[in-house]
Amino acid sequence: MYNNPYAKIKENSINTATPEELTLMLYNGAIKFANQAIIAIEKKDYMAANKSIQKTKEIIREFQITLDMKYDISHELYAAYDYMHRRLTEANMKKDLEIMNEVLEYLRLFRDTWKEAMKVARASKS
């Protein structure tokens, strides 16, 4: 891994990222894997689709287990993540592009909302 300079840069960016930036990286990763699953389904490469869907589900589970449930919003987010997780399971069983696109849209919405929240937080610190 260390022979690849891009892998070293990626590792350094993860190690030096703030928790907010790590969350954004996870959203981007989930979007990337969902897109890969969609492409694999279109190509009828169901092994690759399964692998990408599983990676997407793992990221969503990570979001769920790291929620601080003392906040009301966390319960709402948990339910939304649970819904996406269940839909991904269904998409994986059926190799359903419509469901994958639905989940992808939710992931993009959550990511974009997170990015905006990061901007607002930065602006309030200035």
Structural class: mainly alpha
Order of helices and strands: HHHHH
What is the helical fraction, as a range of percent? over 70%
* Poorly predicted ranges: none
Provide structural commentary.
The protein has a single domain, classed as Up-down Bundle (Four Helix Bundle (Hemerythrin (Met), subunit A)), CATH 1.20.120. The mean pLDDT is 93. It starts with a helix and ends with a helix. It has 5 helices and no strands. Helix 3 runs antiparallel to helix 4. The chain is mainly α and 126 residues long.
Task: Give the topology.
Layout: H1 5-16, H2 19-42, H3 46-65, H4 72-94, H5 97-125
Features:
single chain, about 130 residues, mainly alpha, 5 helices, about 0% strand
Summed up, what is this model?
This protein is mainly alpha-helical. The protein has helices spanning 5-16, 19-42, 46-65, 72-94, 97-125.
